[in-house]
Amino acid sequence: MTPTCPGPTLGVVGGGQLGRMLGEAASPLGVDVVVLDPTPDCPASRVAEQIEGAFDDPDAVRELAERADALTLEIELADPDVLEEIGEEYDVPVHPSPDALRTIRDKLVQKRAFADAGIPVPEFVAVDDAADLADAVERFDGCMLKARTGGYDGRGNLPVEPGDDYEAKLSAVGAGDDGAMAEELIDFERELSVVAVRGDDERRAFPVVENVHREEILRETVAPARCAEGVAERAREVALDTLETLDGRGVFAMELFEEPDGTVSVNEVAPRPHNSGHWSIEGATTSQFEQHVRAVLGWPLGTAEARAPTVMANVLGDVSEPRPASLSGVGDVLAAPNAHLHWYGKREARPLRKLGHLTLVDADGAAAADDDTADRDDLLARARDLRDGLTFE
Does residue 259 have a known ligand-binding role? Predict the structure, then answer.
């Protein structure tokens, strides 16, 4: 599409926080956003129009296609077959491609595709029942069990050790009729990620970042990663090689393991903007969300260079049971130099639910990674202190 102002309308399957931030990024470009989401008054509805309906409801997707000039997604629960059929019916481009979504939304299919393409991945096997899981545990001396579809934010992933109740683990992971996948447990040095983006004839990769998880949930992202330059170069190469195996325009987030010997392997890929790329809103010249809008519409991409070292810290529901979401301590974040708060507008706080994030930018630091990580250590500590000062009433 030729860039114009006002611009076209972008239809997004999903209206959570990612849809909200896509709408915020699209607005300055003159691009209107319509989202499809089953939750009334979803987070994206504050900045975009909402069609209320299931992600895979053909009638709801048709309404979205009728109102949009291009379709994309912010959640893998979209149905690739429905998107493909309706995109062709209404002559509306769909990016990333339904084929890419088919590959990524099933973790076993995803891993097989990457392994076949020569992308480095941990060893893995299909698991259909407790006997299969017992075999996998013996083979790998313990494993990471993953539901093939539907997992997110640590849900759908469980470590399994010899002697565990394998039936209970399969049930807890939500394997269901689709079965599950077991992977070897990687003794990694750190978890890395690279947000890469493909446009019409361009591709970009944001700097390699480091992700800090606890209880399988992302807590902080440090940009750039506190790793050796050679490891960062290898991670970028692997990410761009992985991008070549997937069809369509848009942002793809590559989650990676850095092993103690410096080798890099792919953990998982998301066909959309990703939590580990939130730092780019303030920390990069062009955010991952603006890049996704540009790419899906076929517009020129922006630079993916970092402005300065940045830390992103997730604000999770620190509650024991669901309650209305009400956050205090906000003034301290707003008063901190170079700190930025993002509230997602979710009405209910639940245990460990992602309700917002903050970023802290080292405005005086150099953007390039180097051997001295002390400044980023300090930045991470200050971001944690700011985040930990936020409380739910």
Answer: no
